[in-house]
Amino acid sequence: MLERHELEAFLxxxxxxxxxxxxxxxxxxxxxxxxxxxxxxxxxxxxLFNRTSRRVELSLVGRQLYEEIxxxxxxxxxxxxxxxxxxxxxxxxxxxxxxxxxxxxxLVGAAQAFRTRHPDCQVRNKEAHLPEVLPWLRSGEVDxxxxxxxxxxxxxxxxxxxxxxxxxxxxxTGHPFARRATVSVEDLARVTVLQLPETLxxxxxxxxxxxxxxxxRPIALGPSATTFNETLTLVGAGEGVFAVGAHTRRYFARxxxxxxxxxxxxxxxxxxxxxxxxxxxxxxAFSETALSLVQAPAPNP
Length: 301
What we know:
Elements: H1 4-16, H2 19-26, H3 30-44, E1 49-51, E2 56-58, H4 60-88, E3 92-98, H5 101-117, E4 121-127, H6 133-139, E5 144-149, E6 156-165, E7 167-172, E8 192-195, H7 202-208, E9 220-224, H8 228-236, E10 242-245, H9 248-251, E11 257-261, E12 268-275, H10 281-295
Parallel strand pairs: 3-4, 3-5, 8-9
Antiparallel strand pairs: 1-2, 5-12, 6-12, 7-10, 7-11
Helix pairs in contact: 1-2, 1-3, 1-4, 2-3, 5-10
Organism: Streptomyces oryzae
Family: Belongs to the LysR transcriptional regulatory family.
Pfam families: HTH_1 (PF00126), LysR_substrate (PF03466)
């Protein structure tokens, strides 16, 4: 099997037909090039170059070897350069998924800021239902996603929290809680709480539908739905209640649902997630841009 330095020495000498210029291109000594070619010829059993004091030419075997190796070597080097560009470069295409209109609005702002910083890299946004996020990340359909936290899952990286909003409880309009100014986490022991699909990480499912209250009282868990709108439809039909972020009241106003603030619940967090083996320079740069965008001070009125 040929080693890389042998391939480079042979191909470069076949193109330059001069030991000195070959050594300059490879940043090695002329003696190193000569030794490498001589060793290669001993392994093959015939000369690859015909040498005189005045010129260097490919032998018949050398020319055949060059013509067969050169295209394959070009493919290998091109593929390697593309891999380096994907891992370290800030060009090309970055595909970002988002869940819900509020996340989409934030993502548009982050993408605009990212393109200003890195004009050679395009950003393509794509809406996903929550259960689609992890399959899309694992299959490579998208590079990262702006979605609900926490997403504690093997092979998945959670970026910094970008949005932290008040937690509210979606209840049917006819429910007793709908007439209250606030609810407590302990009140969940008195109702049925809808669940997220089992395909989602347990950390996120527990965050939205805990099995017990802080004092240990059991919580009755109801059915799950595939999409957020399906979940809200179940709420409106009286199948159960569901914890949501405060933005839901604005983006998903419905006549059959009332959103009641929690008085003692932790906030709902949103942020970027991406595959651990897909943490390219583009992904890291986008995460940094999104974080700087939400941390920037608001302009003075």
